[in-house]
Amino acid sequence: MKKSLLFLLLISVSQTFAQVITSSKWSDLFSYNNVLEIREDAGKLIAATENGIFYYTPATGEIKKLSKANGLHEVKISAFDYNPDTKIGLVGYSSGSMDIISPEGITFVVDIPIATGYMGDKKINHIHITGNLAVISVGYGVSIFKLDKKEFGDSAFFNNGGVYDAARESVIKGDTVYSLTSTGLKTHKMDVTFPIYSTWNTAASGNFTQISLSTAAMAYANSTTVFVGDGTTFNAIPKTFNGVKDVVATPQNIIVADSQTVQIFSTTGAFVKSYDASESLNTGFYSNSVIYAGTVLSGMKKESGEILKPDGPYNNFSYKITVNGSELVVSTGFREARFNFAGYNPKNLGFYYFNGSEWIYPSYFKNNPIQFNVLDAVQNPSVKTDFFFTNYNQNTGQGIYRMKYNPGTKDFDFQKYYSLGNNYSYNRPVGLTYTDTGILYATASYYTPTYSNHSTGYLAFDPSSDSFNGRNLLVAPNGEAVQKAYISEGYLWIPFPRSNNFGAVDYKNTQPVSDDQIYVIQKDQGLPSNSGGTLSFTIDKNGDGWIGTESGLRILRSAATEIKNTPTVEPIIIEQNGLGEELFRDSIILQIEVDSGNQKWVSIDGGGVFYLSSTGEQTILHFTKENSPLPTNSVTDIKVDSKTGKVYFVTADGIMVYQGDVLDVTSNFGDVLVYPNPVVYANYKGNVRIRGLADKTNIRITDAAGNLVHQAVARGGYYEWDLNNQRGVRVASGIYFVLMTNADATDKATAKIAVVN
Fold it and tell me: Domain named PorZ N-terminal beta-propeller: which ranges (predicted)?
């Protein structure tokens, strides 16, 4: 008996053309709202969305998901098809790569054939599977893919006098390929002249966009008309549609999704039933007399109105995240390079909120005429229903907003708009940060409260007057743009992304801001001479400040003390091939985060994320989109939840979560955990991890007879043992005892490890 596709969620994945990049330590916070295609396998519905696939079983209501976190190799799905007879699915991506999903695993196909001289889009426009063959539609034309051999066959490059006629959608019927282009329905047998575009026939002229095929009928469509036939003769369904989005042919029906309605017809074109989803659609499906609408914004919608999808944020586009215990707030601002975008975010999304059990999207942002470019959104840590967000644009509505979360309605109520001025080229709010004592600070670019020349500025919220009071930091040209402030040790630490300076404000924990003391680190104090600005900052457990610039990393030793003394910042020098080399020289440092063990997470624009030792001199991990589930190599925000060890990576293509090994680390032990345990070599060949350790832990590992087999000093709250003894030889099967003491021997812990070779 053949395995169900759902079985893929329970088996480890494999691939032929690239390494396995997933593990149980990863999970996604993707949106599954934008449903592109729906297919069926023995009563189970399979929905392909922008960043993943989910499976819905109507009989039980169960929903499971498959994404880059647990098997797929890319994001930005652009095409999908599935053959229930062979249990094989094919996922196409905007990058031009594909995943083959089969009961044996998931295989990554890195490259599609490209015509010599073709410089156009490699996006997979459409996939159609027939038996062991699939026809792939791309901007250059079509390619035949052999599913059984996992290799490409012939390709037809639709080169019409140097201009490529993109294949929008294609199907295979018998030995013939039918393909839609902007000029009509093209056909050709899969013979020796198949690759020659001039030998293709035009079966019907017109601007057609959708085509589908089943064992009973073929259907194709333009924006208003659907044609149904046998591949030779076609008749128009006697109905005018309102912008056809998709046509799906099944052995029993023709399913037509237009702008908001799914309509069902027989394979001869007779009307059966319809469902008005009252929202934008991509596709539709019909199963067991029930209509399902594939929506743009709500997932898969049943004709009863029930929404079916895995829980996730409203959209994948994300920029910054605030973590407040189990609650999350995600902003969706748009930026170009290191600059704040001059206009507004064209997606106009606002922010998303996870209330600890489900994702909430404020209805305030839906159909709101205000142009939103929300660079930051925060939750009041003391009053958790109180939220503020910044709207950074050059239009009406620029300013700071206050919202109130209503748990009863699971929605937000607008409270107040705080204007920073009507000259929208100036006074653009960027970031929001709460102090430990509850003062809310905002930063603003091109700030002009007292100077005719624009500058950077910051503002403090005064609850008694319900207003923000501001002050300048640097006058242009030294200070124009500003980043979100990092608050630590009684200071606001503020990067300036458009000037080679870095600011700090002793805010004295008081209102107003007029008595605050401002300090500035300039280029001649050690910042990289070729840097255009400072972008990120954090302070580690030693009190050292880590400054991320456009051209590398700098350290401000004993930051809170030395900022007052005209300090010099310095690079980290590591040894490479016997020579000293500056760590991250000339790299754009987007974000720096410190975990409770004092290790550093550093995001490099285009370079992924590095996990560094406390000093930065050793790379513990390096995650990229090529070797991990990260959606992209530009991670715009990182947050570590020290209570759970989770690390949140925020990107413009979605949020990925990594289960780290470091939880709250103190001078004493926490809940010590050894995993995996037992260690069975046949099932696991990696290191044994020990977490919950003290900041500095002395470790001795002995066998059952008390003989010492390994010893070490662990720092940062966790340790990995490679199961080798002191001679570098793997230990024998047996029980091993882990004896641990903290730095001053005032606390101790023990554990057992079972080894089965």
Answer: 47-190
Residue 132, token pair as written in the block: 């062991």
pLDDT of 680 > 80? The answer is yes
Domain architecture of the chain: domains with CATH: 212-312 (2.40.128.630), 316-419 (no CATH), 673-756 (2.60.40.4070)
Output phi, psi for 561, to 5 deg.
-85, -50
Quickly count: other Cβ atoms within 10 Å of residue 750's Cβ: 9
Q: How far apart are the first and last CA of the chain?
A: 34
- Predicted confidence (pLDDT) per residue in 247-304, tens digit: 999 999 999 999 999 999 999 999 999 999 999 999 999 999 999 999 999 999 999 9
Q: Which residue has the tokens 């007779």?
A: 270
Using DSSP, state whether 461 is helix, strand or coil: strand
Tell me the pLDDT tens digit for each residue of 113-146. Answer: 887 778 889 999 999 999 999 999 999 999 999 9
Question: In whole angstroms, what is the distance from residue 651 CA to residue 319 CA?
Answer: 6
What is the maximum alpha-carbon separation in the chain? 87
pLDDT of residue 512: 83
Mean pLDDT of 338-352: 70
Instruction: Name the 3-class secondary structure at 269.
Output: coil
Phi first, then psi, for residue 7 (nearest 5°) are: -60, -25
Q: Is 476 exposed, middle or buried (0-12, 13-18, 19+ CB in 10 A)?
A: middle
The answer to whether 605 and 614 are in contact (CB under 8 A) is: no
Residue 455 φ then ψ, to 5°: -155, 180
Question: CA–CA separation, 427 vs 454, rounded Å?
Answer: 9
Distance CA(663)–CA(206), nearest Å, equals 62
CA separation for the pair 135, 127 (Å, rounded):
6
278: which residues sit within 8 A by CB, 6+ positions away?
Answer: 260
| Residue type, position 632, single letter | T
Predicted TM-score (pTM) of this structure? 0.91
Beta-carbon count within 10 A of 104 CB: 14
Which tokens go with 462?
A: 């005064």
Token pair in block for residue 725: 């003894």
Q: Are 341 and 335 in contact (CB under 8 A)?
A: yes
φ, ψ (nearest 5 deg) of residue 261: -125, 140
Please compute the mean of the pLDDT values over residues 572-576 and round it to a whole number: 87
**Nearby residues of 489 by Cβ (< 8 Å), 6 or more positions away:** 539, 543, 559, 560
Cβ–Cβ < 8 Å for 583, 576: no
Instruction: Indicate the range of 359-363, 377-381, 596-600 predicted with least confidence.
Output: 596-600
DSSP helix, strand, coil percent of the chain (3-state; round to 5):
5, 50, 50
533 or 334: whose pLDDT is higher?
Answer: 533
Mean pLDDT (the chain, rounded): 92
Residues 463, 461: Cα–Cα separation, whole Å: 6
Q: Which residues pair with 265 in a beta bridge?
A: 254, 271
Contact predicate 300/45, CB 8 Å: yes
Residue 562, helix vs strand vs coil: helix
Please tell me the total number of residues recorded for the chain in this structure: 757
* CA gap 22, 661 in Å, rounded: 17
CA 655, 659, 661, 662 torsion-angle sign: positive
CA distance 655 to 328: 12
SS3 755: strand
DSSP 296-320: SSSSEEETTS-EES----S-S---E
Residue 274 near residue 264, CB atoms below 8 Å:
yes
> What phi and psi values does residue 357 have, to the nearest 5 degrees?
-135, -25
Helix (H, G, I), strand (E, B) or coil at 394: coil
Contacts of 231 by beta carbon, 8 Å cutoff, 6+ apart: 173, 174, 176, 178, 218
